[in-house]
Write a structure and sequence with these properties.
By secondary structure, the chain is an alpha/beta fold. It has five helices and four strands; from the N terminus they run βαβαβααβα. The chain has a four-stranded parallel sheet with strand order 2-1-3-4. Helix 1 links the parallel strand 1 and strand 2. The longest helix is centred in the C-terminal third of the chain and has 29 residues. The chain is globular and about 45 Å long.
């Protein structure tokens, strides 16, 4: 886990292996944070519920989609650790399975309340709020994943801004 500036708002995106959806969300949201001028106030990273890919870079299709759309792509996969809850303000799950797993890992009810679904921040999202796992499909699944992530980021940024305002930081 990275060392954060004191008072930074900390967001961690979580999917299964931390090589497709969560690194995509991390890089896209980090771009939104930078564009909003909140670089020093908001820290963004990602992890997986499992450790199968620890140390690996993002899937080559994730990297291609990110880079073709003007986002960064530097990444090393890691597994989410229960002890991180104490340092995080929001833990953003990419699907319902991750949401359940993360809430089970949470050591306290307050920590469980930090876990939210990414697409819950998309005002146009209806029904199933999962970001489908593109890993076993073709490139089009990665493009669709990016669209879903981008649709949710403005709402997530607004929520983070609100939380920073409550802290008197923004």
């Amino acid at each position: 886990m990275a060392a954060y500036p004191e008072g930074a708002f900390r967001v961690c995106f979580v999917c299964t292996g931390n090589i497709c959806r969560s690194p995509m969300a991390e890089h896209v949201f980090r771009s939104y944070v930078a564009e909003a001028g909140l670089d020093g106030l908001v820290e963004v990273d990602s992890a997986g519920t499992g450790g199968w890919h620890e140390g690996d870079g993002a899937d080559h299709r994730t990297v291609a989609v990110l880079e073709e759309n003007g986002y960064g792509s530097e990444h090393a996969a890691r597994q989410f650790q229960t002890g991180w809850f104490a340092r995080l303000d929001l833990v953003i799950a990419l699907d319902e399975g991750h949401l359940r797993d993360l809430r089970r890992l949470a050591p306290t009810p307050a920590d469980a309340a930090k876990v939210r679904l990414l697409r819950a921040y998309d005002p146009g999202a209806e029904g199933d709020l999962d970001v489908p796992d593109p890993y076993y499909g073709g490139r089009d699944g990665f493009d669709a994943c990016l669209e879903l992530v981008e649709a949710a980021c403005p709402g997530l940024l607004s929520a983070v801004r609100g939380a920073l305002g409550e802290r008197g930081a923004a």
